[in-house]
Design brief:
CATH class of the largest domain: Alpha Beta
Radius of gyration: 25 Å
Shape: globular
Strand order of the largest sheet: 27-24-26-25-29-30-28-31
Structural class: alpha+beta
CATH superfamily of the largest domain: P-loop containing nucleotide triphosphate hydrolases
Bound molecules: guanosine-5',3'-tetraphosphate
Number of helices: 13
Distance between the termini: 30 Å
Strand content: 25-35%
Length: 541
Amino acid sequence: MSTVSPLDSAELRILRDAIQRRRTFAIISHPDAGKTTLTEKLLLYAGAVETAGAVRPKKNRGHATSDWMQMEQSRGISITSTVLQFEHEGRLLNLLDTPGHQDFSEDTYRTLTAADSAVMVLDAAKGIEPQTRKLFEVCRLRHIPILTFINKMDQPSRDPLELLDEIERILDIAPCPMNWPVGDGPQFQGVVDFASRRLIRYSRAGGGQVRASSFELSMDDPSFPAEVGEDRAQHLVDAVALLEAASAPFDAERFLAGRQTPVFFGSALNNFGVDVFLHALGHLAPGPRPRHGSAGPVDPANPEFSAYVFKIQGNMDPSHRDSMAILRICSGRFERDMLVHHPRLGRKIRMTRLHRLFARDRETVDEAFAGDVVGVVNPGVFVIGDTLSSTPDIEYARMPSFQPEHFGVLRATDISKSKQFRKGVEQLADEGVVQVYHAVDGVRREPILGAVGRLQFDVVESRLAQEYGVSARVDSLPYVCARWPVATPEQLAGVRWPISGFSLVRDRDDRLVGLFASKWELQLVIRDHPEVLFSETSEPA
Ligand code: G4P
């Protein structure tokens, strides 16, 4: 049944090597901790972009590579995740950018399913912030190994020991310092690398350039910079000895199991410690990990190609106005014109063109390997969670859709554009921007929207206007939760729904959904109808 011809041992070796070279990771942080700046600097150090500022506009300024939607630019927040691929020291890094705003947890969750590791960026003055914690929990649920970068050391910072303690206490993961900051604020000079026992000192070389020099951590070394100060140097030698004695050494196994996080200090904005971090990232972050398929774990080096769609992105290129499905390749190798199974549709599809994505830019690729994140033009055949595979034996679980907490009715204010309106709503629903329902009685024709965060409604209004030329507005509805009742038609007919503050609607797959204006009413219905399962997601467990 497979469409992949058996590989000989040389081909298998090439496949394995290509896969082992890949590192697919996401950066998580609370807004403003410096995720975008670090992303930009990683690309800069890897030579993937030439100038700082090429990656994004700084709040309303210039053109962006990673924040390319107009709305993102005007708000200065990252709304959609982008994928950036670059090479460094022989490794191929796929960086998945995740939105930091708390309203976008569903999109972020989906993106994190595609990552093999994560970088957690903390602000050295603030430590663990609420959104860091939420995102960390998602990583923990998925057992994703995490590297920590403590940023903004060039500003007055909290005591590094206190920051490590906070990581341990709040996140319940063992921090393992890999380097140690020398000074903070204007006195921040560099870091001491524990493994080599060397001081890596940074100095500004003008024109935004930074020079790094490295010294053995010994005052007997005549080249040891006098400016560090004898007191501080002695303090460093003592501190390193103390830290080494006090903290558990880096343990790759614990790191990979998500129980220990290697910690690095630096300043992304000033390029201090970024080179060291990038080097460590390439070495420590794991390659593609096996994924759970319906018949058990799928080894990335399995010669059968398999992938799943974790994101649908419409209108990436205003001149094309097309929709793109973004895939994480989980096993094997993709080849151009490959015929793959599409289990949800029960048919085969020819994959004519895959695109390598660099934010808004895309480039056609003839081959891609497990670990890669690539885009494929979506002529309406892919939805989030779809599996594509060269064998019918591999299928990945569908992704749960999250419990919406905000509801509204979407009204077109210009009825002459009903076709564009419908098209736009369909596209945004395909992308998972919002969930879309219709009233069962058919009286109200306007779509009802459900979202995890309220800001999604602004996204809908803005994208309908910008991408479809449709003016529409979302009027809030009083519902607070949704449930998908699972039962026989007779049982459903017997359910006594609340008389007011309730709506029975259908989702896009024609499943019934109850929208409740109070959790208390919901509890009463659940209590009165033990024969019905009221599922919190569209996918009953
Ligand atoms: P985010 O993606 O996590 O939201 O953070 P982002 O990189 O946008 O950084 C948030 C702010 O913090 C930006 O300042 C950025 O310049 C600043 N920043 C990032 N890294 C460092 C660092 O190492 N040291 C210092 N001192 N600041 C840092 P902004 O004022 O919001 O924007 P802009 O005026 O700098 O463009």
